[in-house]
């Protein structure tokens, strides 16, 4: 049996991603079993209901329980269940043959759940899946197609606001998934950091900057937020780390145009002059070719404490326009909480 490692030891990317997913489960379980049970309840509830399976998680404590021949005063029990995970980098990577072999690995008496984890939800409704579904039913196995996005949402949902350490862990897992291209939603995502003290620099140089040590998802769009609204929006064309020495940009992780270098230099100088911020080392820059004014308002009281991500499809039901100018105009009629 292969143990879960805190540091990846796999060369195959699917094993690498599975290991980090198991690590997320492991850390949530160690942190708080109640939170972990909430996570599993979300992931399993709908699938188990559809399959007609009833299940409970955790220790059950009852009193005055009949045994058939007597009634005991107290009774503690915990139902056993098994979960297997098959991970693919593409939903069409699952095959009926492989999943069928996985199903036969479950005990006919105990059954269990088989997660089919991929960036987009796997489709197992075709005729070539009929024998697999029949075998799963016979063994009491529920096939559960889930996405990395589903897992992240369920993990976030099982935590309270004050679970700061675990929220940071889930955020790091989310960033990992984004970096690996496992979140298709990123191409519709608006990254919105608070820019109350830097927005003039951000707008003038069409960029956002923050420490290189801060993990951020590979969102397609940048929103400059201040005064309770996203007031400017651009499409992120490059995310680059670099240093600035003697008025020159050096060590850039992406090839930069002369205009991009000038904008980075100007932002660095303005940040030092206006706020005393040193951007010459350990900084990452989110660069946009163009930026347009908009008014995507926060409708609830108070500002935002940290960055936010918005799936623009939830606010633009007619679709996300390709032109930034059109997107900026469409967002003027939308609000968020």
Automatic annotation (TrEMBL):
<protein>
    <recommendedName>
        <fullName>Restriction endonuclease type IV Mrr domain-containing protein</fullName>
    </recommendedName>
</protein>
């Amino acid at each position: 049996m292969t143990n879960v490692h805190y540091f990846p030891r796999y060369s195959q990317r699917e094993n690498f991603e599975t290991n980090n997913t198991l690590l997320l489960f492991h850390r949530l379980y160690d942190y708080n079993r109640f939170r972990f049970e909430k996570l599993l309840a979300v992931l399993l509830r709908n699938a188990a209901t559809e399959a007609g399976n009833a299940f409970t998680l955790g220790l059950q404590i009852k009193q005055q329980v009949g045994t058939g021949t007597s009634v005991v005063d107290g009774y503690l029990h915990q139902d056993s269940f098994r979960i297997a995970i098959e991970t693919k980098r593409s939903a069409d990577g699952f095959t009926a043959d492989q999943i069928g072999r996985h199903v036969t690995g479950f005990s006919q008496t105990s059954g269990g759940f088989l997660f089919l984890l991929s960036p987009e939800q796997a489709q197992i409704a075709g005729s070539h899946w009929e024998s697999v579904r029949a075998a799963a039913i016979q063994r009491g196995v529920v096939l559960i197609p889930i996405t990395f996005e589903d897992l992240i949402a369920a993990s976030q949902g099982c935590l309270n606001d004050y679970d700061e350490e675990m929220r940071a862990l889930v955020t790091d897992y989310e960033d990992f998934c984004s970096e690996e291209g496992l979140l298709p939603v990123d191409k519709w995502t608006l990254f919105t950091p608070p820019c109350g003290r830097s927005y003039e620099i951000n707008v003038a140089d069409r960029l956002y900057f923050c420490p290189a040590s801060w993990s951020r998802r590979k969102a397609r769009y940048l929103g400059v937020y201040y005064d309770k609204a996203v007031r400017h929006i651009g499409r992120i064309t490059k995310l680059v780390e670099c240093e600035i020495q003697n008025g020159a940009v050096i060590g850039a992780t992406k090839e930069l145009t002369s205009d991009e270098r000038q904008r980075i230099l100007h932002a660095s100088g303005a940040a030092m002059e206006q706020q005393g911020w040193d951007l010459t080392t350990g900084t990452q820059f989110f660069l946009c070719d163009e930026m347009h004014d908009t008014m995507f308002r926060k409708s609830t009281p108070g500002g935002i404490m940290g960055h936010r991500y918005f799936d623009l499809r939830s606010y633009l039901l007619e679709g996300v326009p390709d032109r930034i100018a059109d997107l900026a105009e469409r967002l003027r009629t939308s609000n968020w909480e």
